[in-house]
Amino acid sequence: MQKPIILSGIQPTAKLTLGNYLGAVKNWVKLQNEYLCYYMAVDQHAITVKQDPVQLRQNTLFAVATYLASGVDPKTSHIFVQSHVPQHTQLAWILNCFGYMGELNRMTQFKDKSQSSGKNIRVGLFTYPLLMAADILLYDTDLVPVGDDQKQHVELTRDIAQRLCGLFGDDTVKEPKPYITGPGARVMDLLSPDRKMSKSAENEKGTIFLADTSKQVEKKFKQAVTDSGTEVSYSEDKLGVRNLIDIQSAITGRSPDEIVSSYEGKMYGHLKVETAAIVNEELAPIRAETERYLNDPGELENILKQGAEKAREHASKTIERIYRKVGFHI
Fold first, then answer.
1. Chain center to CA of 183
2. Is residue 113 annotated as a catalytic residue, yes or no?
3. 0.85 exceeded by the pTM?
């Protein structure tokens, strides 16, 4: 029997962060042993906000190189760039005709992002959840690894899948389910631990980028916000301390309680320095391997070509099936 299908992707809007790695890529490596995985650099989602074309291409290759350097295996997982598979936008248009304005208005990420766009809000920023739905439905996806902030988009995809199946038959599309990851799925900003670590944060000092040097990582952790107390504890009122403990837990596999007990009698400074050391130990080989891939563009392009071919093979069958269902002449 074929393994269940998992699909996931990251926007290459900037260099990937520790949050992208711990919340997504590190888990991708584990999942590829149990599932048939499609992993993308979602460059079409990236242009919902203004991008520099040259930088976008560079960031796309950096993202894919990082996937590979982290342990995603192109022999078992399909690794590709979203724009290399035209069926994504083909299906997105169909879903635009079956999605409702009210559904998209309820998307919290649109509300958050549109506040900083002024009056000139791009249409793509409003409709991109339908492109995300197309991404998922295109591969008959069973499970979508997401954090809590993206779960709403998977629920929208499920609603649209049910709608299409109700109109055209149960075999039209497969209804996916969210796969909520465990500890480390939500790494917070080091300076504003009430917000998720982001590639686009105004102050980059709160974000650990995978391309940061060891010294940059150390400096950022030393400046991390904790609180006015001194005791290392894993509590709701100590968001900064909790975040550092979560980062350690996601990398080492130790429970928060184990980590807290190891800091009995120690100060926040110890926690910051040791968290930086753990992060650097994890990221150092990934940095080196990422550079190796980027310095060998031929190998990288060949992997992307093969991944896109496998993705198009599946996507073309899905598009043909849906085109027939909705009445297109093919």
1. 15
2. yes
3. yes
Told to judge if 151 belongs to the known catalytic residues of this protein, a careful annotator would answer no
Residues contacting 113, CB < 8 A, separation 6+: 48, 49, 125
Annotated active-site residue in 15, 26, 113, 238:
113
Of 199, 220, 238, 272, the catalytic one is 199
User: CB atoms < 10 A from the CB of 224, how many?
Assistant: 24
Phi-psi region of 318 (alpha: psi -120 to 50; beta: other; left: phi over 0): alpha
Block residue for tokens 């926040």? 268
The 36-41 sheet, strands edge to edge: 77-81, 36-41, 5-10, 143-146, 177-180
Residue range 244-296, pLDDT digits in tens: 999 999 999 999 999 999 999 899 999 999 999 999 999 999 999 999 999 99
- 174, 177, 196, 317: the catalytic one is 196
* Start-to-end C-alpha separation, the chain: 30
Token pair recorded at residue 130 = 């339908």
| Beta strand spans in the chain (E) | 5-10, 36-41, 77-81, 143-146, 177-180
Per residue in 215-250, pLDDT (tens digit) is 999 999 999 999 878 889 998 889 999 999 999 999
Cα 265 to Cα 29: distance, rounded to the nearest angstrom: 36
Region for 243 from its dihedrals, namely left if φ exceeds 0, alpha if ψ lies in -120 to 50, beta otherwise: alpha
Structural domains for the chain? 5-180+297-326 (3.40.50.620), 204-291 (1.10.240.10)
Strands (E), 32-153: 36-41, 77-81, 143-146
Go through the chain and tell me how many residues it has: 330
